[in-house]
Amino acid sequence: MKQTTLFFIVLLMVFLLFPEQAEAQCSMCRAVLESEEGQATAKGINDGIVYLMAMPYILVAGVGFVVYRMMYK
Known about the structure:
mainly alpha; about 75% helix
C-alpha cells in the first residue's frame, strides 16, 4: 500500500472516530446559545453546522473517486 493511501485512510479514520472534536459555530451563535439553560439547542445547532459543512466535501470526494477510476481503467 502506498504511503499516501495509508495517510488518507488514517486521516479518514480519525475524522470518523472523533466527530465531537469538530465543533463549528460562529461567535454570535455561540454567544446567544451559551446563555440558554439546557444547552440542547446549542448541541443541535452545532451538529447541523457540522453536517452542512461535511456534505460538499463528501460529494467532491465521491466525484473525484469516480473520475480517478475512469482515468485508470
